[in-house]
């Protein structure tokens, strides 16, 4: 992927940068691997807003992506590299020897015509190949890692993401996450060799509020700009400080620096946190 700038004929376009899409080989997606995306506006099944500032945006279709890589020991040829509006990474359309087509998250340096393979056994450490963590040597970068066996990739699926295998000990593999956290993952979990494609995605500047809206994000309003009935920080004549010892959320809970991660059953598998615990 390359990043391009355009003629600055408006204030928004002056700051904006765009993807040049030169790494794509096909524009139209595979129709058999598409489903309609339903818009929920950040609401759950009960109609309550669980994620604020979501709604609207351009219409999209969801590509059905193979995150399990469970078609073992059958070589697949990369037919095309495609754009996915629902993620920053590229998708690779692979065609297996038996004729089946699937989308996979495309690793870096994958070209049309390359062959990829998924296996439970040790195979060549080539970008795009998938195998269990137990067959990955220490120091090798992998992506699309499963958290639990046969449940599909959960870790390092975003553009440019990767994790490092630190070693194998007992029934677990030590994995260094993008955040710096080191945790244990079952060594039977599948992973894909190589970093996820499109690492330059993080350098794109949207440049305008309208472009943000088309991505499905609605405006975020400061608490200090609200009325007292709407936010703990609201009210006052003119611009006022928050007026309390600690900043709070819209619902009066502590914010900015307070740990919100709940106790998780996998906490015991974390060897090193991403940051030092506060005293």
Folded structure, characterized:
The structure is a single chain. The chain has 279 residues and is mainly beta. The protein is built from two helices and 17 strands. The chain has helices spanning 11-15, 209-214, and strands spanning 3-5, 17-19, 34-36, 61-63, 76-82, 91-96, 101-105, 115-116, 130-132, 141-143, 145-146, 153-155, 163-169, 172-176, 182-186, 190-193, 270-272. The protein has a seven-stranded antiparallel sheet with strand order 9-16-10-13-14-15-17, with no helix packed on it. β11 (145-146) and β12 form a beta hairpin. The radius of gyration is 22 Å and the shape is globular. The two termini are 44 Å apart.
Give a brief outline of the structure:
This protein has 279 residues and is mostly beta strands. The chain has 2 domains: 181 residues, Nucleic acid-binding proteins (OB fold (Dihydrolipoamide Acetyltransferase, E2P)); 58 residues, Ribosomal protein L2, domain 3 (Irregular), CATH 4.10.950. It has 2 helices and 17 strands.
Based on the model shown, name its key terms.
single chain, 279 residues, mainly beta, OB fold (Dihydrolipoamide Acetyltransferase, E2P), 7-stranded antiparallel sheet, 4-stranded antiparallel sheet, 2 helices, globular
């Amino acid at each position: 992927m390359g990043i391009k700038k355009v003629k600055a004929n408006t204030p928004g376009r002056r700051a904006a940068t765009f993807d040049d899409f030169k790494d794509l080989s096909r524009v139209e997606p595979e129709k058999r691997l598409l489903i309609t995306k339903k818009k929920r506006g950040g609401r759950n099944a009960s109609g309550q807003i669980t994620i604020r500032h979501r709604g609207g945006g351009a219409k999209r279709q969801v590509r059905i992506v193979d995150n399990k890589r469970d078609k073992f020991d059958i070589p697949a040829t990369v037919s095309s590299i495609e754009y996915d509006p629902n993620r920053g990474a590229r998708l690779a359309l692979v065609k297996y020897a038996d004729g089946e087509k699937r989308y996979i998250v495309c690793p870096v340096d994958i070209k049309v015509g390359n062959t990829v393979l998924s296996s439970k056994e040790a195979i060549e450490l080539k970008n795009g190949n998938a195998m269990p963590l137990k067959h990955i040597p220490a120091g090798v970068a992998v992506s699309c890692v499963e958290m639990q066996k046969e449940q599909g990739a959960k870790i390092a699926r975003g553009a440019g993401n990767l994790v490092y295998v630190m070693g194998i000990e007992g029934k677990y593999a030590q994995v260094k996450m993008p955040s710096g956290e080191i945790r244990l993952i079952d060594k039977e979990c599948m992973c894909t060799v190589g970093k996820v494609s499109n690492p330059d995605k993080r350098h794109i500047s949207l440049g305008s509020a309208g472009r943000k809206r088309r991505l499905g994000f609605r405006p975020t309003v400061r608490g200090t700009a609200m009325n007292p009935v709407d936010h703990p920080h609201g009210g006052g004549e003119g611009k006022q400080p928050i007026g309390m010892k600690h900043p709070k959320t819209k619902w009066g809970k502590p914010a900015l620096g307070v740990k919100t991660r709940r106790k998780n059953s996998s906490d015991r598998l974390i060897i090193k946190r991403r940051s030092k615990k506060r005293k």
